[in-house]
Automatic annotation (TrEMBL):
<keyword id="KW-1133">Transmembrane helix</keyword>
<dbReference type="InterPro" id="IPR050491">
    <property type="entry name" value="AmpC-like"/>
</dbReference>
<keyword id="KW-0472">Membrane</keyword>
<dbReference type="Pfam" id="PF00144">
    <property type="entry name" value="Beta-lactamase"/>
</dbReference>
<dbReference type="InterPro" id="IPR001466">
    <property type="entry name" value="Beta-lactam-related"/>
</dbReference>
<dbReference type="GO" id="GO:0016787">
    <property type="term" value="F:hydrolase activity"/>
</dbReference>
<feature type="domain" description="Beta-lactamase-related">
    <location>
        <begin position="46"/>
        <end position="394"/>
    </location>
</feature>
<dbReference type="InterPro" id="IPR012338">
    <property type="entry name" value="Beta-lactam/transpept-like"/>
</dbReference>
<keyword id="KW-0812">Transmembrane</keyword>
<keyword id="KW-0378">Hydrolase</keyword>
<protein>
    <submittedName>
        <fullName>Class A beta-lactamase-related serine hydrolase</fullName>
    </submittedName>
</protein>
<feature type="transmembrane region" description="Helical">
    <location>
        <begin position="12"/>
        <end position="28"/>
    </location>
</feature>
Length: 413
């Protein structure tokens, strides 16, 4: 194999290129309006969000806030698809990406309620291929609960690997159990003793998808459709772009002038539809790994999901989860990092990331993948839920601050 050797001149050129890209990315990000420390009125929140999308990154976003089973704020800002002149609205559909893990966790709890599994069951009871290399002979056996709260010790795939696990709209969906059975041996050596630490892993949720398929006798997609999406009447949410989603479809995008843009062109060139409005606009992107990250839908539909959660598992007479299961997700089975001494309250629960804010819990999950960033928050004690979907990744660092602004407003008045 021929080894590429860089001359001193080429090394200098490469360093200059990288530094230039970093500077361009920094300058571009510095132009984004940072969230204010606080807002006193809804009009101030509106004004900030308008300024944000007018900066061009993200091109568009949709946000919905629910309080006491009612939608109190529902708006879209900017462009769902600027080249095609489609505005963002609350009905606009975006990739959920990793927020999909919450419905996946709910599906496991539904199956427990049906008596088809128990959270303390060993994973190997249901999946013969599930063989891991434990840290010691005295290690705890990995259970379903370990997968749900990311405490199994199973490593995650790298960001580069996850970015490659995508396919085009015209490509067939993959058999989810066959996929994880094929991939799992590469992730079978545990990073820590099960139950003694927590580390986020998409691989663990791929395994949960295989358990859902094994226990229910349905493929993962159909199970989620029939047991969560349909009962909640989430008609604009699915794993593919259905006919009634196509007219309100957001196109994923990425800033043209950023550190990642050249890499995106190399890795995902066939997914770039066009370059316009200082953005690279993407074709439809589907992920290979569905249980951690495959849902696509609107913020309005996500608000129905949040309302059901805040209503202890029921919406409009349709129950998707028992009160006991909601309690388990909200207040129990939280796991802290091994070095967490409690000065900063962050835990991983069943599906959710759990924070302590001003003596109350905040449940949160974010999602990020090619072209989209999403975030959902629930404040159980306030009966408050917030969700924001965007069509680029620029708000990953402070999307939580934007929802915090929305949570600070007095929606009871």
């Amino acid at each position: 194999m021929k080894v590429l050797r860089l001359t001193k001149r080429r090394k200098v050129i490469l360093v200059v290129f990288v530094l230039t890209a970093i500077i361009v990315a920094y300058v571009g990000n510095s132009k984004l309006p940072q969230p204010p420390e606080s807002v006193q009125m809804v009009t101030e929140l509106d004004s900030y969000l308008e300024g944000l999308v007018n900066s061009g990154s993200p091109p568009g976003l949709s946000i919905v806030i629910v309080k006491h089973d009612s939608i109190v704020y529902s708006k879209g800002f900017g462009w769902a698809d600027a080249p095609r002149n489609i505005k963002a609205t609350p009905e606009t559909v975006y990739h959920w990406w990793s927020i999909t893990k919450i419905p996946t966790a709910m599906a496991i709890l539904q199956l427990q309620e049906q008596g088809k599994l128990q959270l303390e069951d060993p994973v190997s009871k249901y999946l013969p291929f599930f063989e891991v290399n434990y840290p010691s002979d005295n290690s705890n056996i990995i259970t379903i609960l370990h997968l749900l709260n990311h405490s199994s010790g199973i490593p995650d795939a790298s960001g580069l690997k996850l970015a490659k696990w995508i396919h085009h709209d015209t490509d067939p969906a993959l058999d989810q159990t066959a996929l994880i059975e094929e991939l799992f041996p590469d992730y079978a050596t545990l990073e820590f003793e099960p139950g003694e630490n927590t580390a986020y892993t998409n691989i663990g949720y791929m395994v949960l998808g295989a358990i859902i398929e094994k226990v229910s006798g349905q493929n993962y997609r159909d199970y989620i459709r029939k047991n969560i999406l349909e009962p909640l009447e989430m008609t604009q949410t699915d794993f593919v772009y259905t006919n009634n989603m196509q007219t309100v479809e957001a196109a994923g995008s990425h800033p043209s002038f950023s550190f990642m843009a050249p890499l995106l062109r190399i890795m995902m060139g066939s997914f770039i539809r066009e370059s316009s409005n200082n953005s690279l606009w993407l074709e439809r992107v589907y992920t290979n790994q569905e249980p951690p990250s495959a849902l696509i839908g609107s913020t309005l539909d996500a608000s129905r999901f949040m309302r059901a959660y805040l209503n202890k598992g029921i919406l409009d007479g349709n129950r998707i989860l028992s009160e006991a299961s909601i309690e388990l997700m909200t207040n129990d089975s939280h796991v802290a990092n091994a070095n967490d001494e409690g000065s900063f309250f962050f835990r991983r629960g069943i599906g959710w990331h759990v924070f302590k804010e001003k003596d109350e819990l905040k449940l949160e999950h974010t999602g990020g993948g090619p072209g989209f960033f999403t975030i959902m928050q629930i404040y159980p004690s306030q009966d408050l839920g917030l969700v924001m979907f965007c069509n680029d990744l620029s708000l990953q660092q402070y999307g939580w601050k934007i929802l915090q602004l929305g949570a600070s407003l007095h929606w009871d008045e």
